[in-house]
Amino acid sequence: QVQLVESGGGLVQAGRSLRLSCAASPSTFGFSIRGWYRQAPGQQRELVADVTRGGRTNYADCAKGRFTISRENAESTVYLQMNGLKFEDTAVYFCYGIAPWGTKYWGKGTLVTVSS
Prior knowledge:
Elements lengths: L2 E5 L2 E4 L4 E8 L6 E8 L6 E6 L5 E3 L7 E6 L4 E6 L8 E8 L5 E3 L3 E6 L1
Parallel strand pairs: 2-11
Antiparallel strand pairs: 1-3, 3-8, 4-5, 4-9, 5-6, 7-8, 9-10, 9-11
């Protein structure tokens, strides 16, 4: 059973930065971590950023110009660099990935709290 483990969340002041990490455990050949969603209290889960196997990145409007998604280790680790954080970025951030057999997996989430 593959698990995705997120880290890097926390409490930060508005305007500061955080970097989220997501890694697959155990490391599984062919597993592709694809991106990040977030869910604010009382809101639906929404896409923040993702990256295709070919390396093409896609950002939600809320992330453009401030967040950067990157990966290493043959798609087994993905990062989300978040700069210029705003109060409205407060949410639980989830990473997701796709196994070689096609199943989509989600992490348990990491909480980002931005104080205004």
